[in-house]
Design brief:
The chain has about 90 residues and is mainly alpha-helical. Helix content is about 50%, strand content about 10%. The chain is globular, with a radius of gyration of 17 Å.
Length: about 90
Amino acid sequence: MALTKTMTTVPQNSLNLNSDYGVAAALEARRLAEKYGKDYLSCDDLVSIMGIGKNNARQLFNNSTFPTIAIGNRKVVSVVAFALWSLQDSDKYV
């Protein structure tokens, strides 16, 4: 019995993420990770990155659409998830 290897391709339009977003998000995530020296951002980091107040940053962290990770009582966001979120969210306002 011979085994055959089948290759399946995923149609480009079936992916959830546009490749332009992926490349831009990867570059932005790399820039942020190098600038802040970490892979996860805190509320204080978002205050300085986004130029918003601490209360607004806290509201963002508690928003269900924002990609946070809970570590104990602390919430953080990965730089990759933040970069993707910020790029996808920016289309709503253009």
